[in-house]
Specification:
CATH superfamily of the largest domain: TolB, C-terminal domain
Pfam family, one: PKD_4
Number of strands: 59
CATH class of the largest domain: Mainly Beta
Distance between the termini: 90 Å
InterPro entries: 6-blade_b-propeller_TolB-like, CBM6, Cyt_c-like_dom, Cyt_c-like_dom_sf, Cyt_c_ID, Glc/Sorbosone_DH, Ig-like_fold, PKD/Chitinase_dom
Helix content: under 10%
CATH topology of the largest domain: Neuraminidase
Low-confidence stretches: 1-22, 602-616
Protein name: PQQ-dependent sugar dehydrogenase
Organism: Reichenbachiella ulvae
Largest sheet: 6 strands, mixed
Keywords: Electron transport, Heme, Iron, Metal-binding, Transport
Number of helices: 7
Mean pLDDT: 88
Structural class: mainly beta
Length: about 900
């Protein structure tokens, strides 16, 4: 007991001293290193909204109905409950909020899709305690349709005045309007015209509603909404109308302003007939108003009055005279003047807001920060953020904080934690301790994701939290598995000594390095607690899987291991073995091994070697884009699987042109449920490469290349690298993950431009990599090449002087062993191939070319290409 008290006292002294020494300026832009993301949970199943309880526990809900309560103090889930929901399309449990007097009444509000035949959403109040939810009171019913997708909204927020705000989506199919305004009132059913909802004053969809909850579970209408209560063609609950999918909203608790992100349509280009391309919006309402959808978007850019039946335009909607002429409109015809968006941006770079980058987009607004009494003065956010709004994008994974002035104009866009790779942030809010709590949905739609996280971001004023870096010797293998977890590269930005405590089961080890031999098969999670002298700490668990070894793959070539020659035969053999699965033909079938021989131009080979699938430049581009957020290789996600795409367009002569245009410009209708986001940042060549990769996914097994054979390099692919790649994913099993391994072997063409060197001295290269000015004492250094069986090196060149010029070839260094030399002593204005026989050399060596003469400051040579000549091709 005494020792514990002493340790606490020492910690207080350290902390006080650190804060005094640092003297942090509360109003300055914080150093990113002062923020720490503390991850509580991973592998969540479609989390959508969170609330931090007054006692610091975190309540969050999942789209399929889950209700979870996590306690950071005990680092454990203390409650798991659920509510039955209909979760087709985007429906489900969408929103949650605590009553302002939750600490006394324990009331919890949920917005969800009840199961059953009737299509509707419920806003309900429940009583919540440590046993779960009970005593439902349905406060508000929003009729919907379940024949077509999409747009639910569903975010719930309270203002400081106790009024409840609820966002609702336009409940309209966006895919039949080619990414422009869905205003088709000719189709059977009503789900293709958003005027019937978002611009209908007598409908609750496509809105943000504002009501006053009453103690009996009913609600009343507060003063100051958009419409009065006695007009039969308006709904008095409406505060904001003209929304498409206002998925996340927030209320400024001091100024009373409403902020929201509205997810926009998908057209990638402006169209002179149909109207503007799609934009996402972030909006502010200081007073009730109409925000234009589906007749206007962004800064009130108008859409055409498009006749879908006749494919003709009746002109454009007038922002000065907004009129809802839909035959499904049950409200008033003449609407309030639409308001422009506060922030708006398309798929491509925004002229107005270029800092918001480009690509896929899903705009959301987070909280407005205010320092409050009772916030944790050590980890709560500083006063720099006072009255700043947090905005974020689910697809682009950025967060900005901004200022919004009394006119609703945004300014001072400051990136927040820009070096952190978030995984689709779906909700964030400040807790009573002043830290930012966050849910990341994860990379795949409509499923559980390993990278879906519940976390909080803390701030360190006086002494920053250490940065944990852990190297693991091996995280997979058969038992007994010896593993070293080394955290010695962890750093502290304040130079503090660090304390490391590892925990595995009941075993606890201090020190940066943890060595352990895992004797039994299974999955283990050794945990590291990292603490500095000021008491700042981090905790992280690491996954170790015992009982499965990684496959071993090799590609053997006969002859030269670095170069290839067009028309020359290359003999190869692929070998695959796995300790648990066996070997080729003995437990591993040919069909289970992906093997390819490809030509690549300009691909970063370092990225290939870390990739875990058969390699192509198109696949690499897909993996580094937002494509995998909506598509999977074999499984349907939001969009079809890549295999389904390959199957549909097999044999279609126009498929390449059609898909190239669709990926770049965006589009909809081909697969029914979701539209293709525009990708204007891709070049046509990049998209073609991606489509070519997708089309390979439905190749018949009979077309598989043999794992042993000969290959003749193609003349028409010359100048590209020739890459052999083999990949195998083992069978895993017994609770252990499958392990995939890839091996590649790259051969360069035997001839290349002379300027493609590792370094050049006294011989600058032009844009075409030709050495047009080679001077005395020039040195060209080239990468390691296998010189086995190389008889000569030829230079395509011309000499500019009649004086003697010595060209010598060295290996390993510029003064290394000389393996060949040529004397040139006459000028030659024509390009001529000069061949230098070289000494018999084996193995891989860096190659150096030296140029020497007695002439200084005068151009001696021009060199265009260098060519390696093997023995049998030497004259």
């Amino acid at each position: 007991m005494k020792s514990n008290i002493a340790l606490i006292a020492i910690g207080i002294v350290f902390l006080f001293g650190a804060c005094q020494k640092t003297g942090y300026d509360e109003n300055s832009i914080p150093d990113e290193h002062r923020f720490t993301q503390e991850v509580f949970l991973k592998n969540l199943n479609e989390p959508v909204e969170l609330e931090v309880l007054p006692n610091g526990q975190i309540l969050y809900v999942e789209r399929k109905g889950g209700i979870k309560l996590y306690d950071p103090a005990s680092m454990s889930m203390i409650l798991t409950d659920s509510i039955p929901v209909y979760y087709g399309f985007e429906d489900g449990l969408m929103g949650m909020a605590l009553d302002p007097d939750f600490i006394n009444n324990r009331w919890l509000y949920l917005y969800y899709s009840p199961p059953g035949e009737e299509a509707k959403q419920h806003l309900s109040r429940f009583t919540f305690d440590q046993n779960g939810i009970r005593d439902e009171k349905v406060m508000l019913v929003v009729p919907t349709q379940r024949d077509e997708c999409c747009h639910t909204g569903g975010s719930i927020e309270f203002g400081s005045d106790g009024l409840l705000y609820l966002s609702t989506g336009d409940d309209t199919n966006p895919f039949k309007s080619n990414g422009y305004a869905p205003i088709d009132d000719n189709k059977e059913g009503k789900a293709f015209d958003a005027r019937r909802t978002a611009s209908n004053t007598n409908d609750l969809r496509g809105k943000i509603l504002r009501i006053k909850p009453e103690a009996d579970g009913s609600y009343t209408i507060p003063d100051g909404n958009l419409f009065v209560d006695d007009d039969p063609k308006t709904r008095p609950e409406i505060y904001v109308m003209g929304c498409r999918n206002p998925y996340r909203i927030t209320v400024d608790q001091k100024r009373g302003w409403l902020f929201w992100g509205d997810v926009g349509p998908d057209a990638g280009d402006n169209d002179s007939i149909r109207g503007p391309r799609g934009h996402d919006e972030m909006n502010v309402a200081m007073t009730p108003g109409y925000y234009g959808w589906p007749m206007y978007i962004a800064d009130n850019k108008p859409y055409a009055k498009w006749d879908f039946a006749n494919a003709s335009s009746g002109g454009f909607y007038d922002p000065e005279n907004a009129v809802n002429e839909s035959k499904y409109n049950t409200g008033i015809k003449n609407l309030p003047k639409p308001r422009p968006a506060m922030i708006f941006y398309p798929y491509s770079a925004s002229k107005e807001f270029p800092m918001l980058t480009l690509g896929g987009r899903t705009a959301m607004t987070g909280p407005v920060f205010y320092q409050e009494k009772g916030m944790d003065s050590e980890i709560g956010f500083p006063s720099y953020f006072e009255q700043r709004l947090f905005i974020y994008d689910w697809m682009r994974n950025w967060i900005f904080t901004i200022e919004v002035d009394s006119t609703g104009s945004p300014s001072d866009f400051v990136p927040f934690m820009p070096s952190v790779d978030f995984n689709n942030i779906i909700d964030m809010d400040f807790g009573p301790d002043g830290t930012l709590y966050m849910i990341e949905y994860g990379t795949a739609w409509f499923r559980q994701n390993e990278d879906a996280k519940l976390s909080r971001i803390k701030f360190n004023r006086g002494n920053r939290t250490p940065v944990m870096n852990v190297n693991i010797s091996q995280s997979i293998g058969s038992s007994p598995l010896e593993v070293t977890l080394d955290a010695s590269s962890s750093i502290d930005h304040d130079g503090d000594a660090l304390e490391f405590v590892w925990k595995l089961g009941d075993k606890e080890i201090e020190g940066p390095v943890f060595n352990h031999t895992f004797e039994a098969n299974g999955v283990y999670y050794p945990r590291l607690s990292l603490r500095d002298e000021a008491g700042n700490w981090l905790m992280e668990s690491f996954k170790i899987e015992v009982g499965n070894d990684a496959p071993e793959i090799s590609i053997a070539l006969e002859g030269n291991q670095s170069l290839y020659w067009p028309g020359r035969e290359i003999n190869y053999q692929v070998n695959v073995s796995d300790k648990q699965d066996g070997s080729l033909g003995n437990g591993i079938a040919r069909e289970e091994v992906n093997f390819d021989i490809q030509y690549m131009d300009g691909l970063d080979q370092s990225q290939i070697l870390g990739h875990q699938l058969p390699v192509s430049s198109g696949e690499l581009l897909i993996s580094e884009s937002d494509c995998m957020s909506c598509h999977k290789v074999n499984d349907k996600s939001v969009g079809p699987s890549f295999v389904q795409v390959a199957d549909r367009y097999q044999g279609d002569a126009n498929a390449m042109n059609y898909l190239t245009s669709k990926i770049i410009k965006g589009g909809s209708g081909a697969w029914g449920d979701h539209s293709m986001s525009a990708h204007p940042d891709f070049t046509q060549e990049e998209v073609v490469s991606m489509i070519e990769y997708i089309f390979t996914l439905n190749q018949e097994k009979e077309a598989l290349k043999p794992l042993q054979g000969s290959y003749i390099a193609k003349e028409d692919e010359y100048k590209k690298e020739l890459v052999f790649s083999a990949q195998y994913a083992d069978k895993g099993g017994m609770g252990l993950s499958s392990i995939s391994r890839l091996t590649t072997l790259q051969l360069k063409p035997n001839q290349f431009m002379a300027g493609m060197a590792d370094s050049l001295t006294n011989a600058p290269a032009n844009r075409r990599n030709v050495l047009n000015r080679v001077y005395n004492q020039a040195i060209m250094q080239y990468p390691e090449f296998d010189l086995t069986d190389i008889a000569a090196i030829a230079f395509n060149m011309n000499s500019a002087v009649d004086n003697e010029i010595k060209i010598s070839i060295h290996i390993d260094s510029e003064d290394g062993e000389k393996i060949g030399q040529l004397i040139v002593n006459q000028s030659d204005s024509d390009w001529t191939e000069r061949t230098i026989p070289i000494k018999k050399t084996s193995g891989k060596h860096k190659t150096f070319v030296r140029i020497e003469s007695d002439l200084d400051d005068k151009v001696l040579l021009k060199i265009r290409t260098i060519k390696f000549i093997p023995n049998e091709l030497q004259d």
